Amino acid sequence: MKRSMALLLLALFSMSFLSACNTVAGAGKDIQGAGEKVEDTAQDCKDGKC
Predict the structure, then answer these.
(1) What DSSP element (H or E) covers 50?
(2) Alpha-carbon distance 23 to 44, whole Å?
(3) Strand ranges inside the chain, DSSP E
(4) Over its length of 50 residues, how does the chain's per-residue pLDDT go in tens digits?
(5) Which DSSP category does 48 fall into?
């Protein structure tokens, strides 16, 4: 019984950890996209196109 409970807890922890990694990776991509837009706008203003 203890072994089953330990395996269940390990499985739940692993699933939570893996889903958190996907969430952080997705957020990183969103932030990167926003940063690229800011960089493009800054470059346009530097070139006098804003």
Answers:
(1) none
(2) 32
(3) none
(4) 888 989 999 988 888 877 777 787 888 889 999 999 999 999 988 888 77
(5) T
Per-residue buried b or exposed e for 14-48, using 16+ beta carbons within 10 Å of the residue's own CB: eeeeeeeeeeeeeeeeeeeeeeeeeeeeeeeeeee
Retrieve residue 3's tokens.
Answer: 């072994």
User: Contact at 8 Å (CB) between 25 and 34?
Assistant: no
- Structure tokens, 28: 């990183």
Rounded to the nearest 5°, which phi and psi values hold at 48?
Answer: 85, 20
Q: Residue with structure tokens 């493009």?
A: 40
pTM: 0.56
